[in-house]
Amino acid sequence: xxxxxxxxxxxxxxxxxxxxxxxxxxxxxxxxxxxxxxxxxxxxxxxxxxxxxxxxxxxxxxxxxxxxxxxxxxxxxxxxxxxxxxxxxxxxxxxxxxxxxxxxxxxxxxxxxxxxxxxxxxxxxxxxxxxxxxxxxxxxxxxxxxxxxxxxxxxxxxxxxxxxxxxxxxxxxxxxxxxxxxxxxxxxxxxxxxxxxxxxxxxxxxxxxxxxxxxxxxxxxxxxxxxxxxxxxxxxxxxxxxxxxxxxxxxxxxxxxxxxxxxxxxxxxxxxxxxxxxxxxxxxxxxxxxxxxxxxxxxxxxxxxxxxxxxxxxxxxxxxxxxxxxxxxxxxxxxxxxxxxxxxxxxxxxxxxxxxxxxxxxxxxxxxxxxxxxxxxxxxxxxxxxxxxxxxxxxxxxxxxxxxxxxxxxxxxxxxxxxxxxxxxxxxxxxxxxxxxxxxxxxxxxxxxxxxxxxxxxxxxxxxxxxxxxxxxxxxxxxxxxxxxxxxxxxxxxxxxxxxxxxxxxxxxxxxxxxxxxxxxxxxxxxxxxxxxxxxxxxxxxxxxxxxxxxxxxxxxxxxxxxxxxxxxxxxxxxxxxxxxxxxxxxxxxxxxxxxxxxxxxxxxxxxxxxxxxxxxxxxxxxxxxxxxxxxxxxxxxxxxxxxxxxxxxxxxxxxxxxxxxxxxxxxxxxxxxxxxxxxxxxxxxxxxxxxxxxxxxxxxxxxxxxxxxxxxxxxxxxxxxxxxxxxxxxxxxxxxxxxxxxxxxxxxxxxxxxxxxxxxxxxxxxxxxxxxxxxxxxxxxxxxxxxxxxxxxxxxxxxxxxxxxxxxxxxxxxxxxxxxxxxxxxxxxxxxxxxxxxxxxxxxxxxxxxxxxxxx
Length: 857
Known about the structure:
Alpha-1,4 glucan phosphorylase; transferase; Glyco_trans_35; glycosyltransferase; pyridoxal phosphate; alpha/beta
């Protein structure tokens, strides 16, 4: 027997295992440790029915997978073994789901998204397989606490914000509903940067989330996909005498696929998220290496792997723009090839493609898939143009996630012609045919033709990806009622006039599995104790809670839940960031991407106004409700104004938190590197949800939904999904302020002068002057100069115009919070009336209005 074998927790050495290491536990119960590792005998057919069985599987993974005995294992060893144990139970369901799908020819959804902000996977997998308690008991028997292993897990760095979080919610819901779906995206080696603060300023650190391995991914290097770039095209005549085009590639990379399992909630269905990593076709040149040029020897590898290296590389340079386009084309080229070549039978007829797949374009990032499918059908499969175009126009649907013109991607024609010359030719031809349709529908209206063209001329000749997506898709949807209306009326109004039936709305939603059941166990238990089981997969049942808003005992339990969540976030922030939150405060939370239209600047002005009022004597400290404001936000690395806003928030927090004149009344916290894991702790604790974007700028939002579902009241404008939240929860349970979208448009049309508001509002003027004086920046006036100067001379998102309305609404918040019974009743009604915002409902809408796929397959 080898020394290694003697160390492991194997059957033949069970008597050598020290008590309390798992083996003794099993032998006390007469459990066998016969070889039963999933890798040796195939996937586990069903979840273990005992703690004993789980302990066996866990120890097998620790011994065989990690190569260590329990007594010498690290926390990371234990986490990886646990994750692979749970993955083993998921794998059986995954393979069975795939087998059933292969036996049917039902239409599937191919969800194309550049982001999937998944969050930690362990708890979600345990919840989906109903293994949480068994795993906890099994680990405890081995002397391990599940909570300790939870802390080891690193959140996958595959997304940035709402777009990626939404995609993760959607694939969760599709699995829970049994809808056939493959999610496609990029396996970024470095995700969105880790944020830290140095002297209050954001510093970006690479997010090497894969450094300790990822036990949830399954690599398939043998299923590589060739992807081509550059070169030129040549005309030729094929054997049938038809004029054809050949793309002579300039260079190639390989796409390596990695599968993640996406489990449905306790229904036996496991769908697939398929991510792609770029690899060089020739990664290493031995001749060059032997000649001594070591860097040149691996140049092709480095160049190729840059494509999947970083999520959203900085694109302010020509090189950055080119890399972004490479990323987008790479992942859709891999995905289309994979679906047609690897998931369909060898005798599959591509003319049947619309019966097998609908590709959902999650924003404009994957829109290059449209000319890529045309290239495959025409060049590789030899279809005539008209036939290929007819197929393509049935295979795509497009979700637009923005109202900001700068967020609607355009690519310079010069870049497209250099990087993807064949695709540029295809786009030109698509545009020619489309403009013929426009001229036929609107004779003589060349101005309209120019507006609608896929190719724009100013400021440079460019491809308008939103136009291309709209032309080729069966449906175009916005993500909230107001957003979809503005999409039809303003952003894509010419297209909506031409094809009114093409446009629809699907309001976003969030998965109740992660953002209620998993994130808020205290509230989940209260809900289950009150209305019974079943609501996690049918969130409409939350309506049953409404009658309990009048129940004094239930309100007391609800307040206890909120208090427990506040205690939990206090512990988390103390351990994670060294932030000590005060007790007994209204917890006021604003967490979202840092962007001027989201108006973190307005929130800062509110805090400074309260602070200034107290220290100047205009406000009696006793009249101010004790309030803790928590921010969470990352600014894009090249977004200077966003970074200046972060600096000023941190600077204000340093001064305010140290000022004894406001102690016990005001406190600010800005934990660095806000992510899904922190959101799952912070959102359930919040009393007030800040959703204060300028009306007409936020597409939907999903954070607003998460807060309402967890019992926070919203203060917000009539923007995005706030409109639907307010309508559903009721005006009395929502703090509305600010201009609506028509009023915003009217003010901007007649000419907005922010200085007018500064000059006529004493509190606003005093707050801005305090910032400008350097009070929060160590006396350095210049440090706040950009922020203040932009507010007073530009203020593109009308923060000063909405300031007084916002202050008035915050005064209503304070008055209402003083009546805890009334506040609790409103919080309960927010939960009870927010079931509509389940991503399961969003998926039903997509299925009914756009995809027309079967569920339960």
